User: Fold asparagine synthase (glutamine-hydrolyzing) from Nonomuraea harbinensis.
Amino acid sequence: MCGLSGEIRFDDAEADLGAVGRMTEAMRDRGPDGSGLWSHGPIALGHRRLKIIDLSEKAAQPMVDAELGLAAVFNGCLYNYRELRAELRRAGYRFQSGSDTEVLVKAFHRWGAGCVDHFTGMFAFAVAERGGGRLTLGRDRLGIKPLYLSEDGRRLRFASSLPALLAAGGVDTGIDPVALHHYMTFHSLVPGERTILAGVRKLPAATVRVIEADGTSTEHRYWEPRHRRPAAPADDGEWRRAVLDALRTAVRRRMVADVPVGVLLSGGLDSSLIVALLAEQGQREPATFSIGFEPAGGEQGDEFAYSDLVARRFGTDHHRIRVPDSRLAQGVEQAVHAMSEPMVSHDCVAFHLLSREVAGHVKVVQSGQGADEVFAGYDWFPPLAGVPRERAADTYLEAFRDRPHHDLARILAPDHLLDSDVSGDLVRAHLARPGADTALDAVLRLETTAMMVDDPVKRLDNMTMAHGLEARTPFLDHELVELAAACPAELKLAGGGKGVLKDAARRMLPAEVVDRPKGYFPVPAIRHVEGRLLDLVRDALTSRAARDRGLFRRDYVDRLLADPGRDRAATGVNTLWQLGLLELWLQAHLG
Assistant:
């Protein structure tokens, strides 16, 4: 829901409303239903609106409460806004709208930065206090909604997308060498506060930052799941029931809207379970959507057999979307433009093309994103079973990273190499922290609080919001995540991964769906880099811009172009696509 932007100055100058206006306009796709600007001295706010809750103009943003001395912009949804509004009314607050944004404003006035502890939902927000000139930025627990920052000694700017910051100007667009190392190690994922550009950072997930009028600031991380067993152990049946009940609640919460809510139905366990729970709660003929591509390299390009099975079982209003190869190259270019950061997963293109079609039918969808990270569904989790806690980092890196540090010397140009293994060090430092019982618990904490935020979660937000489509993720309900974190490792690893979730689903879904091999959004032509896609990649990597940037060794690029399938990362990522995607993104957004 929406895109926000703003600026706070520290040099006694008034905020640059023109720059905030350019950022706001750059996010038109995120919020096609309206826009607004507000400024007061050194602070300015901008907003693009996607109307989901309270469709009237009373819910327009920036929302200014003159009585409380607050102005706010908000992106996301507070699923418990009705309960909070009732509580705040009992405390004496009056409401002029039915929006969750106004609830956020009153909640901030009552609880200050601690308001985030009362929120159930996905959110990024900025609240300006007119009196003291203080600005508070906040982001939800799982980082579902993004917030990018660009700052120097004179000002700080922020926006829901990185390209919006670029539209304002004044951003250092040099390549961050540490982020480049992460990109090449973690299949394009840059975790934490960094981005591929030296001049842009992210507010981390589960973080509130309070910025004073003089430019000093404090950051507070307000949430992290405890990956530790409960004091009173439960049996397997109790865990299954608890997981299903928590997911049932999460799905119900995400039906809060004043517009219809559909489902992205891949036919896998996670999205199918969402459909089943909606049917259980009386949702009649919800709109469901699946996408498929042409086969390539011996790989099937769709999973319609499974999604059709689920759609028939629960009587959904199902939409099959098949994308011919003739549309794929254009879809790739459009997806790259929609990316706030370069993302190598072919799922990006699938989500982008799917979202464009879905947005013609509904404004809100639920998605199964996040279940694999929360319930240990990936193939790099089982090797961690029984591994000593001190061996967690080595075991995880062996399975998860694309290539070891020393291997980058044959790919990156010498000027962009680092002496130390910064990506390995990041993993080792995170996994060495106390508070997780086992090696698997420590890795699941890393995945849930860092890796997931900057890959599948970011991917879903970018690609859906590029078409004014809001995606909601029940598996990232923070209470469900807390429950899963406490669940014994053996229950999650059972059945090839997500065992406790599969067992919970057996009474609701066909066995063919529960026990099927794990699938992904299949886009075979990208995995194999052929045809028009190969032409796009070749043009990008041999362009003047690429030569001037000089990120990669020319001899290595030439070998890859001569044999596009010759080199795959340990995780299966096509290396030519990894290099080409980065250069395509840089050229799309920097020229």
